[in-house]
Specification:
about 350 residues; mainly alpha
Length: about 350
Amino acid sequence: MKRILLTIAAMMLFLSAWCQTDEFTRQQADKLDSVTVKLMNQKRYEDAIKTKERELAILKALYGEKDTTYIKQFAFSAKLYYRNEQPDMAAKIIEQAAQLYADNVSNSDALYAFYLDNLSLYQSSNNEYDKAKENSRKALTIYEKLGQQDFDLAIILMHMAETSHYCGESQEALKYEIRSLNIIKKLCGEHSDEYIGELPFLQKYYQAVNDEKNAQRVGEKIEKLQKEKDDGFVDLPELIEFKSAELCHEHNDDALKCIQYYLTHTIRASQMEQAAQYIMAWSIASGDVNIVIGEEVGSLASSKESMPYLVGFMAAYSYVCLRDNVKDLNEAQLMDVFDILLQFYEPNRFTEQQAHQNTDNK
């Protein structure tokens, strides 16, 4: 009996030690992953590759190569080789990772589509355009079935356009590029770096099909948008009729964009009226904010000159509600509102003083 008890105790001690070793090893892998990211950000790609290989060895020993934890980190290692200007090695690794994922996890979800899209990018960088186009097409087919009109789809369409162009199918490239730009325009706006930065590719594809008229038109559009952007123009959402709190909630991000514009510009800025109308319409109908306007603040609506500051209060109040995900503000949050309003007031007070001085001089 004593011998059996000792044996059980020995087994428990062994299991305890094994668990501690396993936990420590996973912590070690996580630490190596963190170091890899830091090395990558420092552009020390050779060191990052070596560090990632050590992490992969640990993960493979712990979970095996069929586990998603291993596959995701294995796929990430391809990015390191690509940034180290080794697209052939990057393509080889991501192709293996995609196959492992398809065999053991899914061959129809977003992550599998991303792996195929990355494979296409690496193959294209290695001048394997036919293979790249085929993998782009596979990625696009899978992702379109998911029904998501997001930036990831825009990127896949960009790569589909590029591979089509390099395969001598520039008319097809135009079709995919225009679709990509339409998504970017909707998500980011025409004056975003993402939209303006992608337009030269559209121009290139027009030139490839000898459509100089449209190529010139795109070139002029690039110059126009860049100048407007440099002058401070921002893509603000168009005002809609907010018929319900649910509709307002769907447009919280648009409201926040208008709020941030309003609070960071002077009242004489070109798009302040557009932002103000959106803020007022949204905040009145929204169920996510409950703006309490006291008598003192309400008096700002008594004149045209003070009305912008009432809108500023509504904007600041709404900003804090959205920031903290609360409908009603406590005392500390209300103090934040007045701090934001003060920051809005000061540059506007200075601008108004200058305007009055200029009027007096006339």
